[in-house]
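ok so i was messing around last nite and threw this chain in just to see what happens. nothing serious, just curious
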Amino acid sequence: TAAMFYIDQQTIDYLKLTGREPEQVALVENYAKLTGLWAESLKTAQYERVLEFDLSSVVRNMAGPSNPHKRLPTSALQERGIADEAKLAAARAEEAQGLLPDGAVVIAAITSCTNTSNPRNVVAAALLAKKANALGLVRKPWVKTSFAPGSKVAKLYLEEAGLLPELEKLGFGIVAYACTTCNGMSGALDPKIQQEIIDRDLYATAVLSGNRNFDGRIHPYAKQAFLASPPLVVAYAIAGTVRFDIEQDVLAVVDGKEIRLKDLWPSDEEIDAIVAAAVKPEQFKQIYIPMFDLGEAEQAESPLYNWRPMSTYIRRPPYWDTEGVGALAANPRTLKGMRPLAVLPDNITTDHLSPSNAILASSAAGEYLAKMGLPEEDFNSYATHRGDHLTAMRATFANPQLVNEMAVVDGQVKKGSLARVEPDGKVLRMWEAIETYMDRKQPLIIVAGADYGQGSSRDWAAKGVRLAGVEVIVAEGFERIHRTNLIGMGVLPVEFKPGVTRLTLGLDGTETYDIQGELSPRCDLTLVIHRKNGETTEAQVTCRLDTAAEVRVYQAGGVLQRFAQDFLESNA
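result:
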């Protein structure tokens, strides 16, 4: 995917501000003007499609509560049923009794992704915190706050402006310069708060300046999450509940005056003045020049990594192994006699396929880490253990919000990390089902609806299912990047023809499946469905190996296997 955009004086100003060398800045400007990418030279450019957008219509927005593309104007909180006068009154009554309120914001995080690369957003949050502090406003005691800028430069310009203490006073001290809450790594909640959420089955939430908010991703006990700008994150830490109308409701009464968000929100002029005075090229040079100055690298004793057999973070992967858990070479693909590991609805995200959030002690991965001798406080997140397949495999379909239509208990589909082992008909935890099928050397298939694999591009969403023995995903449609990741792991993506779904075919997971046909880019294949009653149904499906290169990668077993074959052939 490529995007081209024009270069103008603002681009040049940004390069200067962020410490680029004068020669580099001059090169960018000269190149843009010579190649026709300078803004002035594109005034007469003709486009196939033109979109008009009225900048005066822009209002404060969030996204949520369950996906990043659901725009939520803060002015529409009441009409969306999120902020509600009656619910807010009930929440405040609960707070007065010393209880967590309905809609409690248990996590408010300014995160490294998306927002903190823009100094104006960070400065805006700090100025809002400064005004709140001056009025004596404080965050609610149940809100876990954090600030994880994407760069150490943020600390330098906040210190230069005298604003870092203002954020710290409200609880937004710097916790890291890395991926944190957005990737499910907010850390544990206060045990008393977590237990109250469990005991009362509370609707608890998170507000963060990240870019993903699928259910269950941010924290297992934050039922939903809202994406917001850094200053809005600070405001919600003060409000303490999403039942609060952040535009209209009163945050506090100070000296008889009602304080609302508009009284705290900094003007563009205030923000611009701080950025102009406090953000300097020297800060970027101070941080980034030493980062890339490696000096003379020491000569390693061996170019090979010394694998540690008991590591739960980095373990030699099993892609060429002929024995052991996940040994792909021991189970060559046949595309025959496959049993469904899961039958899934639309919009299955990579968070459902392989969550990245905190590892709970009661999960399959948590139990494994405990057996490996790790105390619970060191479990960390699924994302941090992705270099160890024995931990990461246990994350496959480990999301507590998963809906596997095969997991029927007492006549109802039960939500959770569950699967039904066939032909036994027994519903087990997903990992136990995977272990059972691996022991039987049973090839697997996943049947799904539309938009399979949307969300973050997560390699383990493809690795996990392949190591579990899944050979084919048949779905109504695939997210673009996840489809290529599946091929890179040697999993065959095939697509139902329009109008054909798991529902029209009456699939319930008791079947076995074969794929028949010669592979070529976007060819028609036959999905053969062997039903429990002995009947056989055939359905035409589209092979989603879209290019000849993808066919070669798939036939090799995956991208690493293809690379190895090419390497060996070139050195033969």
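not much to say yet. The longest strand covers residues 536-543.
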